[in-house]
Amino acid sequence: MPGPLTAVERFFERIFERPAARLFGAGVEPVQVRHRLEHAMDGAHRAPGGFVPDQYRVRVHPDELAGLGDAVGSFAEALVMHARTHGYRLPRRPTVVLSGDPDVAPGDVAVDTRLGWGGTSEPVGSDTPRPAPADGSPSGATMVFEVPRPRVPYATLLVHTPGVAPREFAVQEASVRIGRAPENDLVLPDSRVSRQHGLLSARQGGLVYTDLGSTNGSFVNGGRVREVALGPGDVLQVGSSTVRVGRAG
How many helices (H) and strands (E) does the chain have? Predict the structure, then answer.
């Protein structure tokens, strides 16, 4: 059951978001769905071990369903980033299902959550939407997508940390957490590096670095950055450590 603060937040969301959509006829926008998904993750019951839900069903009015299909991949990516930023634990990459529900008012968004423990829950669909009902009625229409995993660019990082021998780190996952804490993927034993300093992500075949609100900031080729695409030869500086991007492909 949502707490009083969550209930108040949802109340004001409906005041500001839904009437505006009705007034201007804009319908549900992807950014509105992302905000509702993030709020659903924030307010979800924590399972043993501190895990947050990894399955999300977004319900909108059937007339607004088709306009959101192209954005479903970005919804899952937004949930991953939100979980990392807030220190939440996910058992696996989130899945997002879009569903048409005539009981949801136009311009509004409802989100249901579920935690599927490793391998026990059923897959949530395929690349293509399910066919519409034979009678042509949209009331039961549900578009189910399997969230595509991003193509990971193979890259080699040359890492220099004061007092530590230079080393190479191969990027082979869709995301690489960088920081001083031992739970990071790339651990930098540098007192000027934050515990969770930054994140490398694979996006559309490229490599993107995002600073996670670090104390001393992040710099690429001498300029301070919050988020930037990286290429071979770029030098990322975090604290007193540097990370040079090598070959990629």
Answer: 4, 15
| Residues 6+ positions from 64 with CB-CB distance below 8 Å | 27, 28, 106, 107
Instruction: Give φ, ψ of 127 to 5 degrees.
Output: -70, -25
Could you tell me the pTM of the whole model?
0.43
CA distance 242 to 204: 25
Q: Average pLDDT, stretch 180-194?
A: 94
Taking alpha carbons only, the member of 140, 131, 115, 97 closest to residue 49 is 115
Q: How many CB atoms lie within 10 A of CB 174?
A: 16
Cβ count within 10 A of residue 11: 9
**Between 241 and 84, the higher pLDDT residue:** 241
Q: Is the pLDDT of residue 198 over 90?
A: yes
